Structures are given as structure tokens and as C-alpha cells.
């Protein structure tokens, strides 16, 4: 049962345009959401996060929006650059005993930004 | 500040064998988590180590075991390898009680089981 879903396996956008990557979740206990970016032959790198008490978090060209009622979040990249081409993972976590958290990951969306 | 390093980067084993993967955590981090990423999948949580003890485990059988050392480095051991164990194994470190659980990942060890 996939608790974090990224329904688009791939996305292609033109350089300078907006990239929108979507993520849906099913577990209402999730209270923290993260986006990671992964290049081939490298480990995932943290990009941006959002707490469930917020609906928007912005960091430079990257903005994450959270719609709790719809159990949906999205990552916006504006403007998109060729170096943004990578696999983007959405991940979520919830509080557990002893402040022990684990991340539940989506399957990833492969973004290609074309020059 | 050094990042997370993993070794070996690639290895090939046969069914039934045992494997040990190693991870050095990022400076200042005291918690290590291990993830398995099969082809076309997102990372799956195996377990987490804090203060040299297992501190949370995912849905993996007991033949997956680990260690954390006083310097916060860690090992992942897999016994009786199966074909389905072929995957990229990712180690991630973090600072316990940071709340956000922002993980810093290594580049991974790619295991192929024949």
C-alpha cells in the first residue's frame, strides 16, 4: 500500500518555464513533508520541506505547497533550469515514540528540463 | 565538513552468501538510517541506529541486521542473500532529536545478487 504517491513517473519542461511536481498521501498522521532530488550515481539530496502547520514554504526558485484537506502537496520550480533535471522524491513522516521518525517515500518523478 | 560515505560502491554476490556494507556518517551527526531502493522504486526504510542500538525498523526480515559504532559509523549486514535483495542500499545520517529528520545521504552501495 503506497502511502505516498507520485503519479507522474516523468515530466518534461522547457528551460525558464515552471515545473510542477505533484505528490499525494493517504496517511493523515503525516505531519512533515520533504522533497529530495537525486542525480544518477548519487544519493538523494534534501531540497525543501514543509510542516503540516503551514501551507507554503519557499526557498529561492523552489516552493512547496501543502493542501491538507486534499492530502496533496506540490513542488514548484520557477524558473526551471537544465541543472534541475533529476529524479524528485516526495517523502513524509509522522511522530513516533521517542522522537524516532522514518521517512515514507514516493516512487519519484523524473524531471527533464530542456534547453 | 565531510559528507556521508559508503563502501563498496558496487558489488556482486550469489544467492545464499552474506554481505556487509559500510557507512561513515556526516560530521556532527549521531544517527544512521539504512534504506533499500529497488529499481524504479522509492527508498524503503530498513532500520535506524542511535547510540549504537537499533531505534526503529521497517518491514525487513531478521537476516537484515546492523551495527553502529562509537564513532557513529555503521554497517548493514544481510545474510542468506536472495535475488530480490538486488538493490541500491542507501545510508543516511542525521542528528537525533532534530525533529525534522532531514537526512543526509551517501551515494549508495549497489548490490547485485546472482
Could you provide a short overview of the structure?
Chain A is mostly beta strands and 115 residues long. Chain A has strands at residues 4-5, 10-14, 19-25, 32-38, 45-51, 56-59, 62-67, 72-77, 86-93, 104-105, 109-114.
Please name the defining characteristics of this protein.
heterodimer, A: 115 residues, mainly beta, 5-stranded antiparallel sheet, 11 strands, B: 114 residues
Can you lay out the helices and strands and say which pair or pack?
The complex is a heterodimer of chains A (115) and B (114).
Chain A: E1 4-5, E2 10-14, E3 19-25, E4 32-38, E5 45-51, E6 56-59, E7 62-67, E8 72-77, E9 86-93, E10 104-105, E11 109-114
Parallel strand pairs in A: 2-11
Antiparallel strand pairs in A: 1-3, 3-8, 4-5, 4-9, 6-7, 7-8, 9-10, 9-11
Chain B: E1 5-7, E2 10-13, E3 19-24, E4 31-37, E5 44-50, E6 53-57, E7 64-68, E8 74-78, E9 87-94, E10 104-105, E11 109-113
Structural description of this entry:
The complex is a heterodimer of chains A (115) and B (114). Chain A is mainly beta and 115 residues long. Chain A is 0% helix and 52% strand. In chain A, strands 2, 4, 5, 9, 10 and 11 form a six-stranded mixed β-sheet that branches. The mean pLDDT of chain A is 92. In chain B, strands 2, 4, 5, 6, 9, 10 and 11 form a seven-stranded mixed β-sheet that branches. In chain B, strands 1-3-8-7 form a four-stranded antiparallel β-sheet, with no helix packed on it. The model of chain B has no long low-confidence stretch (mean pLDDT 91). The chains are: A mainly beta (115), B mainly beta (114). At the A-B interface, strand 4, strand 5, strand 9 and strand 10 of A face strand 5 and strand 10 of B.
Amino acid at each position: 500500500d503506497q502511502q505516498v504517491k507520485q503519479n507522474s513517473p516523468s515530466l518534461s519542461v522547457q528551460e525558464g518555464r515552471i515545473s510542477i511536481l505533484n505528490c499525494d498521501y493517504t496517511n493523515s498522521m503525516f505531519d512533515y513533508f520533504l522533497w529530495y532530488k537525486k542525480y544518477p550515481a548519487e544519493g538523494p539530496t534534501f531540497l525543501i520541506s514543509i510542516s503540516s502547520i503551514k501551507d507554503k514554504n519557499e526557498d529561492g526558485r523552489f516552493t512547496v505547497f501543502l493542501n491538507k484537506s486534499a492530502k496533496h502537496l506540490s513542488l514548484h520550480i520557477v524558473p526551471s533550469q537544465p541543472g534541475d533535471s533529476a529524479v524528485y522524491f516526495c517523502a513524509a513522516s509522522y511522530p513516533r515514540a521517542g522522537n524516532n521518525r522514518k521517512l515514507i517515500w514516493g516512487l519519484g518523478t523524473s524531471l527533464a528540463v530542456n534547453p | 565538513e565531510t559528507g556521508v560515505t559508503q563502501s563498496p560502491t558496487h558489488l556482486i554476490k550469489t544467492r545464499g552468501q552474506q554481505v556487509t556494507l559500510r557507512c561513515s556518517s556526516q560530521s556532527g551527526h549521531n544517527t544512521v538510517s539504512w534504506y533499500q531502493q529497488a529499481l524504479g522504486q522509492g527508498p524503503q526504510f530498513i532500520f535506524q541506529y542511535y547510540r549504537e542500538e537499533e531505534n526503529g525498523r521497517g518491514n525487513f526480515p531478521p537476516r537484515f541486521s546492523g551495527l553502529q559504532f562509537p564513532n557513529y559509523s555503521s554497517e548493514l549486514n544481510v545474510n542468506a542473500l536472495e535475488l530480490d535483495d538486488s538493490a541500491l542500499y542507501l545510508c543516511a545520517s542525521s542528528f537525533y532529536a532534530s525533529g525534522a529528520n532531514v537526512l543526509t545521504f551517501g551515494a549508495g552501495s549497489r548490490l547485485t545478487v546472482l
